[in-house]
User: What shape does this take?
Amino acid sequence: MNRIAVNRGFTLIELMVTVSLAAVLMVLAVPSMQEMLATQRVRGAASELLITAQETRSAALKYNRRAVARPVDASLGWQGGWTIYIDNNVNATYESGTDTLVISHEALTGDAVIAKSSGGNSNNFFAYQGTGFLDSSISGSANATWEISSPKTNRRRCLIIERSGRARVQEPPYGSTCSGVTS
Assistant: This one.
């Protein structure tokens, strides 16, 4: 009797077509995945900065003294980490002998960029008075705004600290900046 041979498995052509389709799908998916990750880093950094503003205000109210949050290293900015401290000598510079360290935050991971976009002057830190109000030396009589962005996405977040001390994060319209975002 003749036996009919049964082929099991894939042919080389079928395998190559499948691998080619998988490669095309990966090429299409990777850029959007990178943008999604960058957007998540921006959101995470904005949340960290919002928590920092709330902790700084809480420390000012607790100690009934001026509390400051500022980058550890001015050349690295907020990305290099920051400290929250009670500014006993009101000079906006942390001095371990006179000021009280409240919290030290480690450096941010990823490529999120944090920069002050409005609010009176160019000071890249914020301070609350013992009453919980934003220190007038930071914003004058206006709200202070910091922009959190990434070079890998057009998505941004704005940390807005109102003169009354209330801090919130807001997303501007897609592709625009935080300048002009006030409400």
Notes: The longest helix spans residues 12-63. The chain has one domain: 12-170. The beta strands are 67-71, 82-86, 100-105, 113-118, 126-128, 144-150, 153-161, 167-170.
